[in-house]
Amino acid sequence: MGATTADVRALVEGHEPASPREAAAKVRFLQELSGLSAPCDEHADPTHVTASGIVVGTRGTVLHLHKRLGIWMQPGGHIDAGEAPDVAARREATEELGLAVEHPASGPRLINVDVHDAALGHTHLDLRYLLLAGDDDPQPPAGESPDARWCTWDEAMAMADAALADALPVARAAYEAGEAAEANRSLS
User: Fold this and answer.
1) Alpha carbons 188 and 174: distance in angstroms, whole number
2) In this structure, what CATH number is given to the domain that contains residue 111?
3) 71-126 confidence digits (pLDDT tens)
4) Domain total for the chain?
5) Crossing angle, helix 20-34 and helix 162-176, to 10 degrees?
């Protein structure tokens, strides 16, 4: 079942921002969300909820060069009808990277919220989840950005925009704390 406005609101309200930039994004996210009757439907309004994944593993994090935007970023995109945001984040990462990914064994973990301008005059209210991968190299399928790779944490920070730069330390800390160890072992 898909996420309702109330579901998304509760998720975002319960999220603790990691920086002043993310705190401002959270406020704007909740303001924008109030005007959406179908928050995850990209066709209902130019402003809509999207989902993405910060993919982590022993090699660091996986980024891909966005085909239209020309910037290195995490995989993610629109939420399909009837799909929950955490499911969409995992699906988008798998589709875009050609890589098996999983949520932590403890369950989906929202690690960042962001609001940003997107293509076609859209505004994305992005829910960013921690996703785990084994050591395989990304193998993006035809039609997706062919430029996807593992980056060390330092490389990723140097390549990241401000919003991703907020999310990466949170993802790294969660991974290094061992929260994700069990799920990562199952993917190796």
Assistant:
1) 18
2) 3.90.79.10
3) 899 999 999 999 999 999 999 999 999 999 999 998 999 999 999 988 888 999 99
4) 1
5) 110
- Using DSSP, state whether 71 is helix, strand or coil: coil
Closest CA to 52 of 168, 146, 141: 168
The rounded distance, in Å, linking the Cα atoms of 152 and 138 is 15
Segment 20-44, tens digit of pLDDT: 999 999 999 999 999 998 999 999 9
Domain span including residue 52 = 5-187
pTM of the model: 0.92
CA distance 88 to 129: 10
For residue 139, which phi and psi values (nearest 5 degrees)? -130, 70
Question: Three-state SS for 143?
Answer: coil
Distance CA 185, CA 58 (A): 10
Sequence-distant (≥ 6) Cβ neighbours of residue 43 within 8 angstroms: none
